[in-house]
Design brief:
Layout (H helix, E strand, L loop, with lengths): L1 H23 L3 H27 L3 E5 L5 E5 H27 L4 E11 L3 E11 L7 H12 L4 E4 L3
Parallel strand pairs: 4-5
Antiparallel strand pairs: 1-2, 3-4
Amino acid sequence: MNGLYAAAATVCASSVAVALLSRFITDGGTKKLLGMVTGAFLLCSLLLPLQSAFQGAAVELPQLSGDVGSATADEALQQEVLAQTKESLEHAALDLAAQHGFRVKKAQITLAVRGENRVILTDVTLIIGREEAAHAAELAALTEENFSVTPQIITEQL
C-alpha cells in the first residue's frame, strides 16, 4: 500500500511541477516536447505500481519465430513502456525539426534500460533528403540541445 501512496504522490508532484513549468514556457515546440516527455513519465509512474502488483506472474507470449515462450508480466510491461516511449520521442523529434523548418523523413530513437527502473536515450538518428543536407549541422545542434544526445544525420541518396 505504501507503494501506491508513493506513486500517487509522485504523479501529483510531477503534475504540479509540469503545470507550473508550462506556464513559463511560451515556445510552442518546447512546450510540446515537454508535454510529450512528461506524458511518458506520468505513464511510467502510473504503470510502476501495476508492475509491482503483477511481478512474478507468468504470461505466455508468442515469439517472432512462431514458438510460444514464457515471459513475466513485468518484462512484457517494460517492453510496452519502452515501445511507447520510443514512439513518443520519435514523434517529438520529427515535430521539433518541423517547427524549425527542417524536413526530416524519419527519426529513429534507441533506448536502453539501466538498472531496474532507469531508461536512457542512447542514440538519435535522423534521416533527411539531399535538399536538407546543407542544414545538417543546424539540425544536429537543435536535436542535441533538446535531446542531450548528439544525433547521427543520414542523408538519403536517391
